[in-house]
Protein 1
Amino acid sequence: MSYAEFPSKALENAVNHFASLPGIGRKTAFRLVMSLLRRDRQEVAGFGESIAALHNDIVRCTVCNNISDTGICSICADDRRDRTLVCVVENIQDVMAIENTRQFRGVYHVLGGVISPVEGIKPSDLYIAGLEEKASSGTVTEIIFALSATMEGDTTNFYLYKKLGKYNVALTTLARGVAVGDELEYTDEITLGRAINNRNPYRQ
Amino acid sequence: MSYAEFPSKALENAVNHFASLPGIGRKTAFRLVMSLLRRDRQEVAGFGESIAALHNDIVRCTVCNNISDTGICSICADDRRDRTLVCVVENIQDVMAIENTRQFRGVYHVLGGVISPVEGIKPSDLYIAGLEEKASSGTVTEIIFALSATMEGDTTNFYLYKKLGKYNVALTTLARGVAVGDELEYTDEITLGRAINNRNPYRQ
């Protein structure tokens, strides 16, 4: 069923906006807008405002490029974080994923993507200048490359390594191996090969 | 991965609103908001306004209860529509579905739901008074019950029949039978039984 003719321009406008979101088709968009129409007027107005506020209220942290409500994000502003340890990630989802592990007490540096010739993302499109500044400052002792284990992630790792290797700072990457819960039978050969080569002493 | 701590209140607020929509989980909501953050500021503001406008700009047609930008919807306002023929539907999606067939030139009456003891929807929750007014007015000659072929739809049909049977107006329902494209083998017994009993002369 297509919805060629809408009974209301306002309805059509809202449906078009929802349908422009990734993974939301026109039928789903219509269903979402209809669910909003059944809701309280105040609540729906709040929804609209929360979207309009996105670009106005959210800024980039001037230190790490994470998103924030203030000029410096809550992580960079936290005195208990170790500023000599910088974890390089692709985007803010990765910051949140690592924060959720509660294993990392350093600070972050959000590149804003990875180098990808296919998608036309060049090193100059990423926030690499700021990272080089940190590496050369003398206050940072270790930089962890925490990028995706993909071709693009590896390319970016290599580029960063070439760029930052000359400074007096340790460059490390995330451990690669068999994921917790994975069955060996279904683990790919490259991961399994690396896991064997990088084996660790057994700890109970 | 849970997103317990958001780096920005504005981000969290927008994600919460998206996650409140039916069928949208927190991870999807987050992905949608991130996609908005990558977009043009103007475009995102337009999205927010389109939602805020929903309750302000959309009204119910005073004649048929369809949604509309004006007091009387475009169908009821159209002089070429046959106002002696009223099609009773559950909601505006059904109006649009029937309009898309281009087979109906009458007008509609949107009940706003069907009677459902399970969901606590009583006849008084539906726009039935307006329908009785039309039936008793003498200007309507036929009322088509075009409700879903479900228990609730059948209950509502029966209730309307009891309510409207006393007026001088023909009450009809949609034809039930094997859907176009359906294989007999997979058609349920009740549908097939009704289709046999309601068989029609063969037309080429």
Protein 2
Amino acid sequence: MRVLIRGVAVIPRPEAGVIPKADVVIEGRRFSAVVVGEEVQGPFDRVIEGEGKLLIPGLVNAHTHLAMTLFRGLAQDRPLMDWLEKEVWPREKKLTGEIVHWFSLLGLVEMIRSGTTAFADMYFFMEEVAEAVEKAGLRALLSYGIIAPKPERIEPELKKAESFAREWDGKAEGRIRAALSPHAPYTCGPEVWKRTVALARELRIPIHTHLAETREEVERFRAETGRSPVEWLEELGVFGVPTLAAHCVHLSEKDIEILAAHGVSAVHCPTSNLKLACGIAPVVEMLKGGANVCLGTDGAGSAGDLNMIEEMRLAALLAKVHTGDPQALPAPEALSMATWRGAAALGWGKDLGTIESGRRADGIMLNLAQVHWFPNHDPLANLVYAGQAADVDTVFVDGRFLLIGGELQTLDEEEILGRCRELAKRFK
Amino acid sequence: MRVLIRGVAVIPRPEAGVIPKADVVIEGRRFSAVVVGEEVQGPFDRVIEGEGKLLIPGLVNAHTHLAMTLFRGLAQDRPLMDWLEKEVWPREKKLTGEIVHWFSLLGLVEMIRSGTTAFADMYFFMEEVAEAVEKAGLRALLSYGIIAPKPERIEPELKKAESFAREWDGKAEGRIRAALSPHAPYTCGPEVWKRTVALARELRIPIHTHLAETREEVERFRAETGRSPVEWLEELGVFGVPTLAAHCVHLSEKDIEILAAHGVSAVHCPTSNLKLACGIAPVVEMLKGGANVCLGTDGAGSAGDLNMIEEMRLAALLAKVHTGDPQALPAPEALSMATWRGAAALGWGKDLGTIESGRRADGIMLNLAQVHWFPNHDPLANLVYAGQAADVDTVFVDGRFLLIGGELQTLDEEEILGRCRELAKRFK
């Protein structure tokens, strides 16, 4: 299969800016050429007209709980623990594999429609999530979320996490990879972490966890252990394994040095952090310190949606007010966080995240003919500061098209919306 | 003209929540009934099916510089003064009435498409802006922006402001009203303010200005005058006239008391304030103190777009992190700021801002069949935390339809985009 995207504006990698017009060739699962100013030789199995469109690397959502689309809009504007204890946890007890499957599909439709091509998800019933991802055609790093506050929970939780990882890592033609996910330092003790690290090393897979999300959590942890959660995980040897750490809101200077020294990927989730009043993560400081910082939405139950364009915008805006510097986190840096930095965090760094010959063909096209892009002095700045999910016109992963001209290619949206509407009635 | 919107979900006013299904009747320029659970008597000149839609009061953007859509995306991520002095002001010298007219139309298309029905605009060539507004069919409070740092500028500036106000106040069947706009306390001296107040009293029109946007501006002002800009304006008697004060980021407790005591409307512009690293306005404190706080985008040159749904979301999110309270500024309050509080700020408080019998028929319908609304436990929360401009399906002002099923009714979008594309080439 050889595909030509003809005469399209391209951002091959954010640091290099915008090529106003190029021909982009996909051969099989990879980009094979980005050609400017000369004729590209056919034949092609498919030609897609790129005029009036902007082609960028697919967006990477590095921290989600996909099936929590079920809880979108439910009992909003509540304190986190109150919301979890009274609203979410009682309902999560009623979850079944079937429900997780359908609400994962719902989240996948939303992600495709807003330009996400790869994501890192942590939840329960992960086999059902993985089947949904395989069907949808996205790329994902998936993990079972281990919560083991009591010793007797350790064995069954680790077993679930391990069996999922062994079964699914490398599946769906390599589009699905597995991770191990102790939920957080405050919900899993040293034994869980040590055994997870050993297993991650054996399976050569990463760890995906929550880290330093709220001030209270960090302060309590420090009072109990004499260490910050970051210091504690380092001592346990966790960061010897590639690690995605969601949130990273409350960090000391030393914490930032530790994250950077070990190449930990911090997943900034600005909407979720604001909405739950957690705080503003020190993104600029982490980037300056040399850490890899990428972006995530968190679950739609807490964040409202799975829209990565808005997370880019919010990250760029928040960094400015947080540092007092309007030049902080400029648009290209925000797009880097949403593309190649996310790809690196998920473990596809060498293979993904830019539009260059030899890289995996994961990309999206946005429609520039919308009024809110005009007069389009700078499409990259407009993408970050004015772009909308509805501008996403075409989406492909591994050279396979998931959305063309706004039409879903792999999923039946009507069926998914209908099933979710029915299933949601049990959760009022 | 009698119109029925049949079987629609309605938020008549945000505090009252969502009516899942109602028939809404418009007679002429006003709502005449919101009927639940019984048959509505015809005949009707037009029947609009509301199933799967959400009807809310039209959004009010209380601070814009419409024609600055011309500068969208231009030299972004720069310090404010650097951006103004090197990029914007030299280009503004090249502005003509024609250019302002077309880029105002561009902004009007964007506003209609994102659900704004009324706005407050301050700029130059305001006659051209007013003509564009009249054609588009929106409702607006318009004013010429007076900048008079030197004494010899006072007369010509006041004259322009006055002649525009006298000519346009009450025009376009009452949809256009005029205001007077000394640009800010630091760009206009006491004489300008005093004469503006006298003229505003004579013409019975409000004042629209910028207030306390940056810390430096407020500190310098206090050093020079011994007063905060708010205290200074109060002493000059400005707040005896209904006043819209854009930004209000850097306020003392006393300032907040003054604004509340005089019924000043503070226009919170969260995107612009973040993007220019100005700070986060004390919105919750102002509301608690009894001030009217509404929402604005500011110009698209600095803010990126004219999208009020995003300003609602950002206001709700920022208030939470700013106060440390996830219950701060809940979704209904954000929607109030974007609707009836904005209407009150623009001087239409008794006539506009809710969907109730006797009120002006300004409203918008959003398409609930989009994936990011599902499963829709709470349409009001979803509107604020997941809603997108592209969900706006239908827009009407004074009972006249400006957008139906995503189709513009009063403006020729293709012509406007084409003209703006050509005109923008002079401003690269």
